[in-house]
């Protein structure tokens, strides 16, 4: 595992009140391990897929290429829309709006804080009902090694790159990484952040 370039905040999740952004049905009392796989070769028609420890699909995209300037829909295993998102066209900072399902109901906004380095920087997440940022995304996005942090202190989810050189690489494709979601954290919210960050990195990598 590649070591992170930043020191994670040290805090307990036991005393916090983390909101269920998408819905309580996506929150579990225990820690959850997810796997993100893109450019998949042998199942789901090559789509971007997030699975649980047992290989069950939890979230997926219709296309393996995410077009942030168009609305992208994140679906559950039954193909029902969970969230959708797109990049705002005219903003000082790169800003991404996330909606509930395929509706126009805003849930939260994600934007880069400094616009300096797309590989090592901070993104802020502001919930629709809040006046200031509630979450931050910090770390090395190029190496898929970053954290989602609540109110500046509590790590609610962590992304780490996994390397596969054996037969499993033929099944899951070249891009596969792990997401640890801490207890009582909305998995659909985390899935949306991970999906957007993946798309941002791919866009900047092609520039």
From TrEMBL:
Family matches, as InterPro entries: LOR, LOR_sf, Tubby-like_C
Please report a single Pfam family linked to this protein: LOR
Signal sequence interval, chain numbering = none
Highest taxon of source: Eukaryota
**Cited Gene3D superfamilies:** LURP1-related
Q: Of which family is this protein a member?
A: Belongs to the LOR family.
Q: What is this protein called in UniProt?
A: Tubby C-terminal domain-containing protein
The organism named in the record is Marchantia polymorpha
């Amino acid at each position: 595992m590649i070591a992170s370039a930043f020191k994670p905040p040290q805090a307990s999740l036991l005393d916090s009140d983390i909101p269920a952004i998408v819905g309580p049905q996506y929150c579990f009392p225990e820690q959850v391990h997810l796997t993100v796989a893109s450019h998949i070769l042998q199942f789901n028609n090559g789509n971007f897929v997030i699975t649980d420890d047992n290989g069950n699909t939890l979230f997926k995209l219709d296309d393996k290429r995410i077009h942030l300037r168009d609305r992208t829909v994140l679906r559950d295993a039954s193909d029902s829309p969970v969230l959708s998102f797109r990049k705002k066209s005219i903003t000082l900072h790169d800003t991404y709006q996330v909606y509930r399902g395929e509706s126009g109901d805003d849930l939260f906004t994600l934007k880069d804080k400094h616009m300096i380095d797309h590989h090592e920087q901070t993104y802020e997440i502001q919930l629709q009902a809040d006046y200031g940022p509630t979450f931050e995304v910090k770390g090395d996005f190029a190496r898929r090694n970053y954290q989602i942090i609540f109110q500046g202190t509590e790590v609610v989810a962590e992304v780490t790159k996994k390397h596969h050189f054996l037969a499993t690489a033929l099944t899951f494709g070249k891009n596969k990484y792990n997401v640890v979601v801490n207890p009582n954290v909305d998995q659909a919210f985390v899935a949306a952040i991970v999906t957007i960050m993946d798309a941002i990195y791919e866009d900047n990598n092609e520039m």
